[in-house]
Amino acid sequence: MTVMEQRGAYRPTPPPAWQPRMDPAPLLPDAEPYRVLGTDAAAKADPALLRRLYAHLVRGRRYNAQATALTKQGRLAVYPSSTGQEACEVAAALALEERDWLFPSYRDTLAVVARGVDPVHALTLLRGDWHTGYDPHEHRVAPLCTPLATQLPHAVGLAHAAHLKGDDVVALALVGDGGSSEGDFHEALNFAAVWQAPVVFLVQNNGFAISVPLAKQTAAPSLAHKAVGYGMPGRLVDGNDAVAVHQVLSEAVRHARAGGGPTLIEAVTYRVEAHTNADDDKRYRADAEVETWRAHDPIALLERELTERGLIDEDGIRHAREDAERLAADLREHMNQDPALDPMDLFAHVYAEPTPQLQEQRDQLAAELEAEREGAHR
Amino acid sequence: MTTVALKPATMAQALTRALRDAMADDPAVHVMGEDVGTLGGVFRVTDGLAQEFGEDRCTDTPLAEAGILGTAVGMAMYGLRPVVEMQFDAFAYPAFEQLISHVSRMRNRTRGTMPLPITIRVPYGGGIGGVEHHSDSSEAYYMATPGLHVVTPATVADAYGLLRAAIASDDPVVFLEPKRLYWSKDSWNPEEPSAVEPIGRAVVRRSGRSATLITYGPSVPVCLEAAEAARAEGWDLEVVDLRSLVPFDDETVSASVRRTGRAVVVHESGGFGGPGGEIAARVTERCFHYLEAPVLRVAGFDIPYPPPMLERHHLPGVDRILDAVGRLQWEAES
User: Fold this and answer.
1) Do both B27 and B130 map to the same domain?
2) Chain B CB within 8 Å of residue A357 CB
3) A217-276: per-residue pLDDT in tens?
4) ipTM of the complex
């Protein structure tokens, strides 16, 4: 056969190894954030759930205010407030079963408390008396994670391990819009999808990574769209609509538990307060912008629904606020006591057994402390 | 009593056997990394494990070292004992944040309630003709990170015994495998593998009276060769194989230097900010009055790892070691 004859017989085909792997269309998020409050769907929401969400939201806001006040009194080293984002925090905790795991970032103290961790122990990192104040296994809450997005692969690995062991445990990982730019975000989502791990990623898009707005963070159509590139569904939800967030999260958790694999959820919300008490948000955003979000307040949205449906009255609202005040008073009382510190703890947990080198250093510190005590008595 | 014939085995085979035995003994042990499954690893250390234990126990992961170590953290949180393979020393760098911010600190962060029994296997060092990024000696970074154990075998038997100990450890262990010793052979009984070696104990590989060569990993055979060559010069050199950089066996090292009065630290890693500086300082602090000469270091140069056609000039060899031994102020003795 001549070359020309071969050419004549050639029919262009796709590259040999190529095959369509998946139709991306079902993975795409909705065009607009999913909402329940203020829509017809609200009527179908379970009244007990609404009341429960409301009570947690009110507690959460009061907790944030109290913690920020404690920074001003020198009782907390720093506090990254989640005021404005309470719906995401509370829904995250309430969407999980007891046996599930929560992987919070440093702004997620409310979710940690809503999950059942002691409100004082949840602040240990930010108080500065240790790095974590609770046993993660007790409530299945990983330590508050400071390096952004680095807790996401942990959530994937834990979910994968649980799946391998035959336990129907789901991991929920919390991250922000800034964290979605980190390499670990990408690697975690990729591993999760390849392994079909029972894990849910909730991105709280609160508009800012400290001062940097979302437009400088990503050129994606939305953060939820990133899911498609990994082969998992992306969901977009109004992050200030506690019922909507709870519903979307619960569906994703059910999907994961049933073996359906991971979901990426972007909750559109807003950090109403500065990054932390040490930040000055007037340098990077206008008051008017903040005010538009105050008008879309998660507590007000839910309160209106409860009131209009007659699910709560003045007494109910007052009761929720009194409950939150008790939480704040309790927090104040505990945080105004100096924590018990033992400098020897510095060497106790570096390894299962201190190395000979650490034993020497521990002895040195013990001698320094002894000298300090003797000096004080002189 | 029957004597089992010892057969020559390679370090790679001993490592494979250690992984296999650990996986057989404990269902919590999971091997994961790039190409560790079907292929058996680029150095074949995980050969046969996926076939024997299934791909859930010996898993080919996506190509992402931070993801490999980060997911291993989560698996360890749930009670597994991941053994992670970093394909080459320099490819372990993407995993540094997970290693330093989480693996090394989780036990301490959680007051001991969340230990991470993870073994991180890292083929390291040069001498194999590797192109750039395939020959780094990164142990100084690991040594400088509190919370990690750093272990490196130099013999076939230790490869087995130390890897078993690393996997059994409740603390994270960076297990540095000297690449150029993967194919080194030793008499070894695969029917009855050597005992699990405790982490943190150095061993005297060769007894001598004149001076101590303090070394580890790929430089151990080089030092033994130098010690043989030194006999012609009238020097009887002792060779200490550290085996564990963290914890550091001050006792064995100091005892040796006190006997000999002279010491040279030998490693491939660069000298400036390298392990040798720490070791020399520790020896000096503990043995000052026994020393006849300053503790010297023979190290790789403080340069990016050279291209393969030039690496022999970089790696500490017998001549450079003997040259250092010659500078240990012998004239002052007479």
Assistant:
1) yes
2) yes
3) 999 999 999 999 999 999 999 999 999 999 999 999 999 999 999 999 999 999 999 999
4) 0.95
- Token duo for residue A286: 């206008």
Residue of B nearest to A193 (CA): B62
What is the 8-class DSSP label of residue B99? I
DSSP state for residue A66 in the 8-state scheme = H
Q: Are B76 and A191 an interchain contact pair (Cβ–Cβ within 8 Å)? A: no
Alpha-carbon span B284 to B291, nearest angstrom: 8
Partners of residue A172 on adjacent β-strands? A102, A200
Work out how many CB contacts closer than 8 A connect A with B: 141
What is the pTM for the complete model shown?
0.96
Cross-chain residue pair B114–A152, CB shorter than 8 Å: no
Q: How far apart are CA A330 and CA A323, in angstroms?
A: 11
A284 is catalytic: yes
Query: Considering its fold, how many domains does chain B have in total?
Result: 2
Mean pLDDT of the region B292-318: 97
Same domain, B169 and B257: no
Give the Cα separation of A284 and A212 in Å (integer): 8
Known catalytic residue at B267: no
| Cβ-nearest to A162 among B78, B106, B247 | B78
Q: What is the pLDDT of residues B136-161, one digit of tens each?
A: 999 999 999 999 999 999 999 999 99
Judging contacts by C-beta atoms under 8 Å, the chain B residues touching residue A349 are 107-108, 110-112
The residue among A106, A138, A151, A355 with the most chain B CBs within 10 A of its CB, best to mutate, is: A355
Which domain does B246 fall in, by range? Answer: 203-326
Choose the final residue of a domain: B188, B217, B232: B188
Residue B194 counted as domain residue:
no
**Is the same domain home to B207 and B314?**
yes
- Look up the CATH number of the domain holding residue B227: 3.40.50.920
Q: What is the pLDDT of residues B248-267, one digit of tens each?
A: 999 999 999 999 999 999 99
Q: What is the Cα–Cα distance from A177 to A199, expressed in whole angstroms? A: 18
A309 a catalytic residue? no
- CB distance from B70 to chain A under 8 Å? yes
Test the B interface: residue of A134, A175, A351, A361 with most B CBs within 10 Å: A351
Residue B196 within any structural domain of the chain:
no
Q: Bridge partners of B296?
A: B264
Q: Is position B56 within any domain?
A: yes
**Does B102 reach chain A within 8 Å, measured CB to CB?**
yes
Q: What pLDDT, on the 0 to 100 scale, is given for residue B328?
A: 96
Overall CATH class of domain A27-278+285-335: alpha beta
Indicate whether B91 and B231 sit together in one domain: no
Q: Is the CB of residue A137 less than 8 Å away from at least one CB of chain B?
A: yes
Q: What sign does the dihedral B300-B256-B239-B293 (CA atoms) show?
A: positive
Same domain, B207 and B183: no
Interface test with A, best of B71, B84, B145, B170 (most A CBs within 10 A): B71
Residue A194 near chain B (CB below 8 Å)? yes
Which residue has tokens 């404990």? Answer: B26
CB of B101 less than 8 A from some CB of A? yes
Residue spans of alpha helices (H) in A205-340: 226-230, 242-257, 287-294, 298-308, 314-335
pLDDT of residue B190: 66
